# Entry
Amino acid sequence: MTNSAIGRRVLLCGVAVSILALPALAHHGWGWAVDEQSELKGTIRAISMAPPHPTLQVAATDGVLWQIDLGNPSQTARANFTGDTAKVGDAVTVLGNRHQDASKKQMKAVRITIGGKNYDMYPERIKTN
# Structure
């Protein structure tokens, strides 16, 4: 195999890896969320502690189902939120940033409150106390 053929294969592999990584890059970070924070009150319908981000499914008081993204697994653990912290049916208040696309019922939580206890996923981002 010539050096130019090897170079083309390396380049193609790099392009393929970059394309496959785009969904992860689009998901992570705060670029998809609005700047202002809002509060959502509801009831937990499902809990997932699976990577890349633990999530809650929360039925808001108006009945709309929201996906709540918590911190990455280590941030969520530092916030003292584990798989045993909450259960389906618990009342929850979420402070966070909603998706820029209002049709997507998704929020990135900076703080969740369950049973009067705060779990701060991103304490440096909390704009209200």
Confidence is low (pLDDT under 50) at residues 11-27.
